[in-house]
């Protein structure tokens, strides 16, 4: 019998416990051993929960219990999740997480610690919710030279943009609806301003290109400035507007990671990904173009990835070395967003025009020149090719 613990009994943590007990028989068969959740850590009390007898508020009980081999961290945020994760890894427990903020900030360090301790640190649930993307990138596509990964990495903003396109809603009304339906947080800044998608593209970029990409080196713009008029202009050009997280390798070997609203032509399958769904496209030399699609957020979809990692961690008592990347002191392997090449839609008092393919720096100069000529610029949005 392998004993496990869950740290954080919020939406994802409670979904993890629920899904584990719902499908326990099948999960144990898949893991090849009997499994149970011994502790659930949370500072809140849940007297009416069917799992009330497992709930504790002292992490020491988990850290010091030799019976516990696998810990799921579903707390979110850097602290105290970072300290708790380190203590679990140091004491020889594998940790699985849905915490993208922690992986984006401390992934290299925690993966190295796991390697030293011969345990695993898994994070499938940190990007794309239920979508299998971490394991496919480092295992199923391992034979390939991957040159680009891009996609819709945030469910809340995709829901908002879908409502703006399909129902003609204004950004503020679509955001209010997302909050009413429980998709967006009360403080929606991390979703709406692109910080959540930025953390996710940092994780994918680190995994694919082998060096830790810190969020501070990544240009991230959200969707709060997207207007109904932008949506109408994009539609007239046969495009949707999507919040795209992208990382692309340039010919000089540097990579450009960024998050930006982009026009996505209707011919690109990403354009038809709507509501809270996410999708990730991977471009590589052997497999060519692969697309991964599914529910990017929510209780059971995210729990699906957490529990799968728990099974994997229970099955492997040795570190899976391939899931690892180097730390990076500086961002010298990262090129500025200014160097990204694309077309650009510019909307001004003179109408809508699409600037020919050029680097962002050149587009910015064109826009500045238009302003100097007296044009009023309403928006300038890159086009995904
Ligand atoms: N707030 C995130 C989203 C949750 O909307 O995608 C999943 O990471």
Please supply descriptive tags for the structure shown above.
385 residues, alpha/beta, Rossmann fold, Dihydrodipicolinate Reductase, domain 2, 3 domains, six-stranded parallel beta sheet, six-stranded mixed beta sheet, 13 helices, 15 strands, globular, binds L-homoserine
Provide structural commentary:
This protein is α/β, with parallel strands linked by helices and 385 residues long. It has 3 domains: 147 residues, NAD(P)-binding Rossmann-like Domain (Rossmann fold, 3-Layer(aba) Sandwich); 156 residues, Dihydrodipicolinate Reductase, domain 2; 46 residues. It has 13 helices and 15 strands. A 6-stranded parallel sheet has the order 3-2-1-4-5-6, with helices on both faces. A 6-stranded mixed sheet has the order 8-10-9-7-11-12. Strands 14-13-15 form a 3-stranded antiparallel sheet, with helices on both faces. Helix 2 packs parallel to helix 12, helix 4 runs parallel beside helix 5 and helix 5 runs parallel beside helix 10. The chain starts with a strand and ends with a strand. The protein binds L-homoserine.
């Amino acid at each position: 019998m392998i004993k496990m613990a869950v740290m954080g009994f919020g939406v994802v943590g409670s979904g993890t416990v629920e899904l584990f007990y719902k499908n326990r028989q099948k999960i144990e068969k898949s893991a090849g051993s009997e499994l149970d959740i011994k502790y659930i850590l949370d500072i809140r009390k849940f007297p009416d929960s069917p799992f009330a007898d497992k709930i504790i508020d002292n992490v020491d009980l988990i850290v010091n219990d030799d019976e516990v081999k696998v810990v799921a961290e579903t707390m979110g945020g850097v602290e105290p999740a970072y300290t708790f994760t380190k203590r679990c890894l140091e004491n020889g427990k594998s940790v699985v997480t849905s915490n993208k903020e922690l992986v984006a900030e401390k992934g290299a360090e925690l993966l190295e610690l796991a390697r030293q301790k011969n345990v695993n640190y898994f994070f499938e649930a940190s990007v794309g919710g239920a979508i299998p993307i971490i394991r496919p990138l480092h295992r199923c596509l391992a034979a390939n030279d991957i040159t680009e990964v891009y996609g819709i990495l945030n469910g809340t903003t995709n829901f908002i943009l879908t409502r703006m396109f399909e129902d003609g809603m204004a950004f503020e009304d679509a955001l209010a609806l997302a909050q009413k339906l429980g998709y967006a947080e009360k403080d929606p800044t991390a979703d709406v301003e692109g910080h959540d998608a930025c953390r996710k593209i940092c994780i994918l970029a680190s995994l694919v290109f082998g060096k830790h990409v810190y969020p501070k080196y990544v240009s991230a713009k959200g969707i709060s400035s997207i207007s109904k008029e932008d949506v109408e202009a994009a539609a007239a050009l046969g495009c949707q507007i999507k919040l795209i997280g992208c990382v692309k390798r340039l010919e000089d070997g540097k990579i450009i990671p960024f998050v930006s609203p982009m026009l996505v032509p209707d011919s690109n399958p990403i354009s038809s990904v709507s509501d809270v769904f996410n999708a990730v496209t991977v471009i590589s030399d052997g497999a060519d173009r692969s697309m991964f699609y599914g529910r990017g957020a929510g209780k059971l979809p995210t729990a699906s990835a957490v529990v799968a990692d728990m099974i994997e961690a229970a099955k492997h008592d040795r570190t899976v070395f391939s899931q690892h990347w180097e730390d990076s002191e500086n961002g010298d392997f990262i090129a500025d967003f200014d160097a990204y090449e694309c077309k650009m839609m510019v909307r001004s008092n003179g109408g809508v025009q699409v600037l020919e393919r050029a680097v962002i720096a050149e587009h910015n100069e064109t826009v500045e020149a238009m302003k100097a000529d007296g044009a009023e610029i309403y928006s300038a949005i890159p086009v995904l090719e």
